[in-house]
Amino acid sequence: MNLRIVLSSLLTALLLTAFRADQPAPVQLQRLRCELLTNPEGIDATAPRLSWELSGPARGLEQTAYQVLVASTPDKLAADEGDLWNSGQVTSAQSVHVAYGGQPLRSRTRCYWKVRTWTTQGPTAWSPPARWSMGLLNYLDWKGRWIGFDRAFPGDDETSHARLSARYFRKEFKADKPIRQATAYIIGLGLYELYLNGQRVGEQVLAPGPTDYTQGVKYNTYDVTGLLKSGANAVGAVLGNGRFYAMRQHYKPYKIKTFGYPKLLMQVEVTYADGSRDVVKTDESWQGTADGPIRTNNEYDGEEYDATKEMPGWASAGFDAKKWLPAELVQEPGGAYEAQMNENMKVMETLKPVSIKPLAGGKYILDMGQNLAGWLRLRVQGKAGDKVTLRFAETLQPSGELYVRNLRDARVTDVYTLKGGAPETWEPRFVYHGFRYVEISGWPAGPAPTLADFDGRVVYDDMPTTGALTTSDATINQVYRNAYWGIRSNYKGMPVDCPQRNERQPWLGDRTTGAYGESFVFDNSRLYAKWLHDIEQAQKADGSIPDVAPAFWRYYGDNVTWPGTYLTVADMLYRQYGDEQVLARHYDSMRRWLLYMGQNYSENGLVTKDKYGDWCVPPESKELIHSKDPARNTDGALIASSTYYHMLDLMRGFAVTLNKTRDADEYTQRMAALKTAFNQKFLNPESCQYSNNTVTANLLPLSYGMVPPEAEAKVFQNIVDKILVENQGHISTGVIGTQWLMRGLTQRGRPDVALRLAANRDYPSWGYMAANGATTIWELWNGNTADPAMNSQNHVMLLGDLLIWQYENLAGIKSAPDAPGFQRLEMKPTPTTGLTSVSASYQSVRGLVKSSWKQEPKRFSWNLTVPGNTKALVYLPAKDVEKVQEGGKKASAAPGVKFLRQEGDRAVFEVGSGEYAFVVK
């Protein structure tokens, strides 16, 4: 009997094993991406990296092998024929950035792909198919010529507020055979809209992405097969000024770059069913005009649109273009042609206004209820020639009028001239505004404007929102929401400082740590990869890096802190997205900058070049923003030397990752020498104070690992005393110190102090901004009372490490330092008196992470989700592992949960993928 039971059990096990080997596991493969983009068109990565996610109902899902098929047609892929690449079964857990290894990819190649995996829970079925296409990889692939008008037209303004009318171009052509495929490639500078047969191509706005056009220009690719027809066709493009024809080019020409008049290069490649091809390309046969309805456009000053000059059907076949001019051949911009590998901007949300109030003189003030970046869409009815003027601002004067002094000389005004008759709907094409309030004047006679007549159009890069976070503290929640709006406002094909005044520049120092925090809220991987390329292109041959990149302003200040962002953003892309390639691509340029600074600005073993200090230390005023007053500001030499030490440390890590052992040893030696010189210069060995004992002066060396071990406790206590006693529990750091403040306090055992800073509602604090009506983040801690010249209501630089702290320390969502790209999670929330709950989610490159905890009297509960093909180290606030339960059982005995060790008052477990419910009693 026992023998029969044993044999029966053995047979059952063998049958189950055979079933698992032959049948797809209940595991889903999803979010297939190529270069972290979904089905991209026209890429120029010749060995593109493929990524996917695994999910399944059971815990502990791990990939053990994968197979990728890439085919040249959908039919071949469906037949499991990988004629471009069949990876075969590859024993590997890698599911992010798997490099294509098949046939060489050439211009225009269309690739269709799918993946299947083998997992700890059995093999999967093939994934749903995905695709990508290759762009034009060689200069000679471009068949067209650059066209444009290299001159101004009547009505154009070429003074200091330079603004041109839009240029319209068109071409008719025939397609007399059935069409199999049609693809458009376009470089429209500064900005373009593309039309085929009267239909606008794509949903992008303000395209392409801005660059230093003498270094590189971005092209976009579109599948336009569905827009062409047999017979007569027409292609049209409208060009706006963008950053190409600069907004203030005559103001300070030695400072401000401009690149020329708008110009266009494009081609539509048509493949017919019989295999023959046609190319419709820009050349002298095109026609153009500057006498269309967009009369002026300028990013700072606004757009004027005259609907009486509309040209119905101008981008359709059969349009009468006798009055148009022949297109002129113009000089190319000089930069290399590059596929745009980051998302274009798009109208990402539409908001309804919350109120409209009349003012004297027939004006109205519209309140959107939210500071945003984008524009206003209006619906209006009147007679031909009526002009509606829209003027934008962030705040109001006590009288109810717009407050515009903080906009400097930006005119921020749109004008719409009605064509008359039926109701008309309009929104601008080639500008954006940073605003909450809109002054409306010139409304036609008849009914007064109502809220239904207007929409706020929120514009930023078309990237997914990846994070969400709420806590039991209303102030923290409001500040998080303000940060969300501020970040999206300042994504404009590059990260800019503000969206409203006559600046809007990609300052490096604003994103040194900010990019890292932003990466929890938005999938900013492609934007920042593009920005690193901008920085690299802006680097001079000797290694110098500007403070603004692309270098639309020629600011080569050679300080350490702003250009050092080049390294910290590369580190973020590696840490958050597992992108090792970005380190390899930029390593030589980063090293050249590091050596340049060390060779040119070294004094007594220190690197002391600083320009901005701890920018915007409270209390701010126009005179004190970067004052050298030793009583309130940190010594710039200390900031520069400690930051340079941190840069050496980052480069050492990059060198280790890239197997550059000799370089790593060099960095280690230089760090040791710098550390010794730094402590000799700045550390008081008796008081354990650095320099003048500001929070930043002590915090930087502590965060960078420069403090002698015997002095660490006292240095940290100096920071806490400075905050709690001298500053009465308030922040006293500027842009530099705030980058390390919240994590520095929490990781050294004072999360209560960090929480106090986060929850404050009086000056100076993030909560003070919210308490005074802010719906974004201010440029200054006293942004409601500051000098108008430095008073942006929509900046992100003062966020510092606040978002990182919220996700990593409050919620406990962090990629383990030795496992970049969330290969392994380190989940270590920090419950603190005064905060009873935190709930957060984050869409990592490997899948969705969730963490939701609640602190009650004598009970801590924590629900968490770990994505497939990932493990997590989980730190529970429990001094005794026996006090921890999971799913109603002792955690140490729960399925998928492994107790590792006790670390003081925390019990540490390892878990695989899945959902978990922990309770500590």
TrEMBL record:
InterPro entries: 6-hairpin_glycosidase_sf, 6hp_glycosidase-like_sf, Alpha_rhamnosid, Bac_rhamnosid6H, Bac_rhamnosid_C, Bac_rhamnosid_N, Ig-like_fold, Rhamnosid_concanavalin. SUPFAM superfamilies: Six-hairpin glycosidases. GO terms for biological process: carbohydrate metabolic process. Keywords: Hydrolase. One of its GO terms (molecular function) is alpha-L-rhamnosidase activity. It holds the Pfam family Bac_rhamnosid. The keyword Hydrolase applies. It catalyses: Hydrolysis of terminal non-reducing alpha-L-rhamnose residues in alpha-L-rhamnosides. Gene3D superfamilies: 1.50.10.10, Galactose-binding domain-like (2.60.120.260), Immunoglobulins (2.60.40.10), Maltose phosphorylase, domain 3 (2.60.420.10). It is an enzyme of class 3 (hydrolase). Its EC number is 3.2.1.40. This is alpha-L-rhamnosidase. It comes from Hymenobacter busanensis. The lineage of its organism: Bacteria, Pseudomonadati, Bacteroidota, Cytophagia, Cytophagales.
